[in-house]
């Protein structure tokens, strides 16, 4: 229930290549229990599991791991074969070099390179050849390589910067879940910057763990938002312990041994607020339960601390653009 839900934008964007090719994906959405009407609502969210299944189904249906956004096709299984090629490398640096070399053997593959900048390393993507107006493949490739690298060494690679060769989009607030680091838009290129010490770290994975990893990847890498080490993430974990009795800001500040004013300031610096975090968590928990039949609307409202169902209805519609009842009908 603590999992972040996925903005409807990303599901719409993932369908862009199929749409351009004239592929009828409505039966696919129906099969996955994803309402087309829900995707058309900008504020709507979908569960991470649904997003994972959508990506996997699109890869199989289009016979293309680039989802129709690349200059050419990437046959399903290419990513898995690349992982098998690098899993026996001794260090992350060697593994990344082998993985990028693997893809460079395909003439139509997006161009990814590693550049050294003193004590830092930059993973650079040349997206000039992609047919990707919503930048879905560009962002997906950066996320996948970052999270693959983190998985290989068994620890999260802290990003120091992410750059994008386009203006900040309307859904820019979602980027902290993909790239928990300082963001630069309208840059010369798309890239991720991190410390080069990670390149010398040994791989902790092997063919046995790779088999399990590949059962859901790379879709799983995209559908699991990266909370990082931010204060917002700490608060989300703290608040999710008991959602029926929400602590107030003063209690949370005392728990963290900081003043309420300092807590407000830090959250403001991260572009959020205590109320916004609480609403996002309540929204995500509500979506979790609405996608199942385990609780009635009244029980969900009570679990989220609402005094009456009508207050829950109003809040949920404000968060997502649809009522809880309509959301449950569209999901089931």
Automatic annotation (TrEMBL):
<dbReference type="Pfam" id="PF12833">
    <property type="entry name" value="HTH_18"/>
</dbReference>
<feature type="domain" description="HTH araC/xylS-type">
    <location>
        <begin position="233"/>
        <end position="330"/>
    </location>
</feature>
<keyword id="KW-0238">DNA-binding</keyword>
<protein>
    <submittedName>
        <fullName>AraC family transcriptional regulator</fullName>
    </submittedName>
</protein>
<dbReference type="InterPro" id="IPR018060">
    <property type="entry name" value="HTH_AraC"/>
</dbReference>
<dbReference type="InterPro" id="IPR009057">
    <property type="entry name" value="Homeodomain-like_sf"/>
</dbReference>
<keyword id="KW-0804">Transcription</keyword>
<dbReference type="GO" id="GO:0000976">
    <property type="term" value="F:transcription cis-regulatory region binding"/>
</dbReference>
<dbReference type="GO" id="GO:0003700">
    <property type="term" value="F:DNA-binding transcription factor activity"/>
</dbReference>
<keyword id="KW-0805">Transcription regulation</keyword>
<dbReference type="Pfam" id="PF12625">
    <property type="entry name" value="Arabinose_bd"/>
</dbReference>
<dbReference type="InterPro" id="IPR032687">
    <property type="entry name" value="AraC-type_N"/>
</dbReference>
<dbReference type="InterPro" id="IPR020449">
    <property type="entry name" value="Tscrpt_reg_AraC-type_HTH"/>
</dbReference>
<dbReference type="GO" id="GO:0005829">
    <property type="term" value="C:cytosol"/>
</dbReference>
């Amino acid at each position: 229930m603590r999992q972040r839900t996925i903005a409807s934008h990303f599901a719409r964007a993932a369908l862009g290549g199929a749409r351009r090719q004239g592929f009828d994906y409505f039966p696919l959405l129906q099969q996955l229990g994803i309402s087309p009407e829900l995707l058309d609502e900008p504020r709507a969210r979908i569960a991470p599991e649904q997003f994972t299944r959508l990506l996997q189904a699109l890869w199989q249906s289009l016979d293309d791991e680039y989802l129709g956004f690349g200059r050419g096709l990437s046959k399903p299984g290419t990513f898995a074969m690349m992982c098998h090629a690098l899993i026996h490398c001794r260090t992350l640096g060697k593994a990344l070099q082998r993985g990028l070399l693997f893809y460079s053997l395909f003439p139509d593959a997006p161009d990814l390179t590693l550049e050294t900048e003193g004590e830092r390393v930059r993973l650079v993507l040349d997206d000039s050849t992609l047919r990707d107006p919503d930048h879905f493949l560009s962002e997906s490739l950066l996320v996948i390589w970052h999270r693959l690298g983190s998985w290989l060494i068994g620890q999260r690679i802290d990003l120091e910067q992410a750059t994008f060769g386009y203006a900040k989009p309307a859904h820019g607030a979602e980027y902290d879940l993909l790239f928990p680091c300082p963001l630069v838009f309208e840059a010369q290129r798309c890239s991720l910057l991190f410390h080069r010490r990670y390149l010398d770290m040994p791989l902790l994975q092997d063919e046995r763990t790779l088999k399990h990893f590949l059962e859901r990847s790379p879709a799983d890498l995209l559908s699991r938002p990266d909370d990082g080490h931010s204060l917002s993430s700490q608060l989300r974990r703290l608040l999710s312990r008991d959602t029926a009795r929400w602590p107030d800001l003063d209690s949370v500040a005392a728990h963290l041994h900081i003043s309420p004013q300092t807590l407000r300031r830090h959250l403001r610096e991260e572009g959020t607020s205590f109320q916004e975090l609480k609403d996002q968590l309540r929204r995500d928990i509500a979506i979790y339960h609405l996608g199942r039949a385990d609780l009635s609307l009244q029980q969900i409202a009570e679990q989220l601390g609402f005094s009456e169902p009508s207050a829950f209805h109003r809040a949920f519609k404000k968060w997502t653009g649809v009522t809880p009842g309509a959301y449950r009908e569209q999901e089931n």
